Here is the input.
Amino acid sequence: MSHFSPFEIQVALSSEEPDQGYGRLNFSSHLDRPIQIWIKLVDVTTNLGVWSCDSAWEIFPGVNYWIGLPPMLALNVGDFEVQVTGDVNFTVVKNWGTQSNPFLIEGVPFQTCTQGDMAFQTYVEVWLDRVYHQGVVQVQPGDVVVDVGANYGFFSLFAWSQKASRVVAVEPFPPTYECLRQNTQKFSSIQTLPVAVGAKSARGTMYPSRVSGSNFLTQNESWVEGSENIKPVNATRFEVQILTWPEILEQGQITKIDFLKVDCEGGEVDLFQNMASQHWDMLSKIAVEFHSPTGKEIILDLLSAHKFQIQSCSDGGIGLILAHTIKPKPFTFMQ
Here is the structure.
């Protein structure tokens, strides 16, 4: 790919977003004709995709265009590569004046396999913002962790870094699972299972989505708010194996779970609705992503019915619930 740029590209951190600001990339074409292009931003340090356009952009001479990133991305990316393909092909490296945070495993930069998806946001959420590691709901040394909807393994690797004794990573989507397997294969305490969770054992259908990490079983579409915006048209479909929760526990030889993380794009409803009382008794800490208002209420009701304390719950129809059954240590007065 050529490093000649037919564009004027400028970058800046804006203060228009509340609190911190966001990264803005402004560009215009020097060419004397309209062109169609695709743009992708890649963090140089981690080699993870930061942003990409969903379809080709038509660019006209003399018109100014811009891309804006939210603070979470802009303030954690350092040098990033602007990759332009289409009627013209070139790359250029830019920087907002911020410093990238490398993905470190035992102090060594770790390059994940991600099939080119925009996985930088997931990395930032899990490793830097630690969204699944708050308050009482944290992975502690010696914990047995089950990661349902493991994606490329960011949380499984994070749990390993917190000295979990064992991690079982469950991911059904075949291209993503292959990356998960590659990313975790040298860690003997991480086991991967290429299955989905459901109300009954069966075969299911998944499609690659327009949004990274948002591949969902077609049977769970009603539990995913905005699914019509991320479901692709005329895409290759993948047949996957669906197992019930007891079957997953048996296949993974899981007899206790200290930390259960769930992000399975609507499948969380089937998982929790079909847990027997002995399965609830196995759990002590839960981080679960919900993907619809109805699914959120169902999960909150089930957690309450099984005596879980809700540590935090996101507003809106898509978000995160952190819950636990850990009782606070009694306070004693010093004599």
